[in-house]
Amino acid sequence: MEVFFGAAVLVLCYVFLRLLNLSNGPAPPTLYYRPSDLNEFLLQTVPLLTLRYTPPILWGRNGHLQSIIHSLFGPSRSKESRTGECFSVQLEDGSTLTYTLYDTSKPHPAGDITIVVCPGFGSSNRSKYIQAFVSLVSDHGYKVAVLDHLGTTDNPLTARRIFTYGETGEFGAMVDDVMRENTTTRLIVVGFSMGANIVCKYMAEGRPHNRRVICCVSAGQGYDAVRGSNVLMEWTGFRRAYNFAMAQGLKTILQRHSYVLFRGNSDFNLSAIQSATSLQEIDLAYTLQAGGYSSLHSYYRHCSCKFTMHKITVPTLLVNALDDPLIPEDMLDVPYNYAMSRDNAMFVLTRHGGHLGFYSGGLIIPDSETWLHRLLLQYLDAMSTLALDQSKVKASTDSLLSSSSAFENLSLCASSSVGTPVD
């Protein structure tokens, strides 16, 4: 009997170790980049790129737990919510986007910088992880503008559409409005999950304000909605269950705004939308008709930054976790190929972190700030300092060139007066 009891204890210990992945220890992130002056500068000025990332000991090595706790509770710093000023912008199709601008209590050493943030799927400025990020960076001198995806707040829709996975129009309109309100600010573009896909697409479009952008940051995105739509239908890694949960969230948004979206419109199969158990079913019953797409493949391809991100010209940081339950490892060839093909990009891949979790420290209760948010702050500070130094060099060079030109003109005038006959 004692033998069986001992065997049972060993089996339970093995299951416990496997479930919590305790045998997979912490490690520094794996970095993929092409050697360049910029990347060498980042390695020297962003400590978290080379230090070991240690998740919470008891549960932090399980990507599912990281993802679920992030979704339900957010970082503990999110309790320090900030109050910003809400703005609204009317779009050409009649839609009204809203965004919130958070000021800072102290100026950044590198000058006036506004971080423009595109949240993840179904998120807005009130999402807990967004509030935690805003709280952290605004304490360090950054202004922050956060987009509310269409339909994610209680504000009524003014046109018959909600957000999509890859539409850049709303984010672009927010950036335009931010620059209209403050023409001298420099921009940093940050996106989380679906929002990261949108900002990469936006930066690839070569918008006029891109020249004001210091850098672009992508965290926890899948890059390719065509492949992503297929893997989300698989039960491997319980991705089908996550797909179901996201579909329920999207149906809640559609239901909340059903009076505007569906009233007097017979083009949609409402019963198919209500019975849908996956994002793909909702897209087939609603999104294709709402957006005028011919097929799911064409819609997902249009939404994917994979096919355009090679046009991004600004320094770019891409961050993913190897244990993200939504994004399998074979989809990470996109950021790898991108980072290895240019001098101003870096792909950071952690062993742990889940989907946007990246909790760190502690046995059970993690640190108030996630590893991801601290990494982003260090990267943004480094890039802002570099941009300031470059602007000083440019100003100094322009001044020297101006002085040189003035001296040359003076010399020419002097030489032309020499030997002039006097009557």
From TrEMBL:
GO biological process entries: acylglycerol catabolic process; medium-chain fatty acid biosynthetic process; medium-chain fatty acid catabolic process; sperm capacitation; steroid hormone receptor signaling pathway
Occurrences of domain AB hydrolase-1 (ranges): 114-360
Domain of life: Eukaryota
Record Pfam families: Abhydrolase_1 (PF00561)
Active site positions: 193 (charge relay system), 324 (charge relay system), 355 (charge relay system)
Transmembrane portions of the chain: none
One GO CC term on file: sperm flagellum
Alphabetical list of InterPro entries matching this protein: AB_hydrolase_1, AB_hydrolase_4_sf, AB_hydrolase_fold, ABHD4
An example Gene Ontology molecular-function term: acetylesterase activity
Family: Belongs to the AB hydrolase superfamily. AB hydrolase 4 family.
Protein name: Monoacylglycerol lipase ABHD2-like
Lineage of producing organism: Eukaryota, Metazoa, Chordata, Cephalochordata, Leptocardii
